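Try this one yourself first.
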């Protein structure tokens, strides 16, 4: 489990593999503190397992399914990546519940400066926007963000300067692919509603434990 609050921006040091699977070596510092082999680190929002630790670097494997369903396949040596360690018990919780399981890949359509923020419009399939609502939560490349607007094929988020300068999004431009994870609560509610389409709303709420 993660929070969507990026701890540092690492950099891909080397890539070994092919179009189906690869091993990443990523330079980092902060996320290596108290990290051991077998721990999880989110890389651009993708939960990966640490397989080797070195001085100011770690290694992780990317399996075929992850290559197919995320933008990690676009990484090259030198690429900046958002990094976050898995949430430890007892830690202060911020952001929102993030699994590190990417639902799909979006593409940045526009990047627009407005006053003290930057608006990013991201194009995504309708299969993802069905789980989104205005002012709800979404994860973009591992960053917990609030949805400003949602249309059937896109959504907009507003990035404050601090988030922009402390994440990989400072380098993001229109046309870039980004990993998208939708709010897990929204997904559970949508699944429940799909299963209960024949029931009344009061019955759906009762079965969800929200009413008596």
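Now uncover the answer:
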């Amino acid at each position: 489990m993660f929070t969507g609050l990026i701890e540092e921006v690492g950099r891909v040091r080397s890539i070994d593999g092919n179009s189906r699977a690869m091993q990443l070596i990523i330079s980092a510092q902060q996320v290596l503190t108290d990290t051991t082999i077998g721990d999880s680190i989110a890389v651009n929002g993708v939960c990966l397992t640490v397989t080797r630790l070195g001085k100011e670097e770690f290694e992780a494997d990317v399996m075929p399914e992850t290559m197919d369903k995320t933008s990690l396949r676009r990484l090259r040596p030198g690429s900046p990546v958002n990094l976050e360690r898995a949430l430890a018990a007892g830690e202060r919780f911020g952001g929102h519940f993030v699994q590190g399981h990417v639902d799909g890949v979006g593409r940045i359509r526009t990047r627009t400066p407005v006053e003290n923020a930057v608006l990013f419009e991201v194009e995504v399939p309708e299969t993802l926007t069905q789980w989104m609502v205005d002012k709800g939560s979404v994860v973009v490349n591992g960053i917990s963000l609030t949805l400003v607007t949602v249309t059937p094929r896109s959504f907009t988020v507003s990035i404050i300067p601090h988030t922009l300068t402390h994440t990989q999004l400072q380098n993001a431009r229109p046309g870039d692919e980004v990993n998208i994870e939708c709010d897990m609560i929204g997904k559970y509610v949508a699944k429940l509603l799909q299963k209960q389409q024949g029931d009344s709303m009061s019955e759906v709420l009762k079965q969800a434990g929200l009413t008596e």
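Discussion: The chain has a mean pLDDT of 90. Residues 184-195 form the longest helix (12 residues).
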